[in-house]
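Hey team,

Filing this mostly as a record. A colleague (T.K.) asked me to run one chain through the structure pipeline before their review meeting, and I want the input and output archived in the tracker in case anyone asks later how it was produced. No errors, nothing strange. Just documentation.

Input sequence:
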Amino acid sequence: MQSLQRLSCWYGTWTKSRKRQEDTDMASIREHVETVFAALPFAERHLTREAREVLAEGGQAADASAVAAKRIDNRPRVRV
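Output structure:
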């Protein structure tokens, strides 16, 4: 019975520390993403006008291809 209690206690401690580690990992990933997106406007400010135009064209082309790839009907897709 004691060994079962010890195992239960160890498992509870292990899962808590694992959860804490996962939370820390997610927080660091979230912080990294937020930092990158916060830095984008500053990086884009120093681009040449030509580079900004190329970036704008790329965004418009991506939007057009996404609209073209949209399915017309709502039937479910068949998986093979």
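Quick notes for T.K.: The longest helix spans residues 2-45. The chain has a mean pLDDT of 73.
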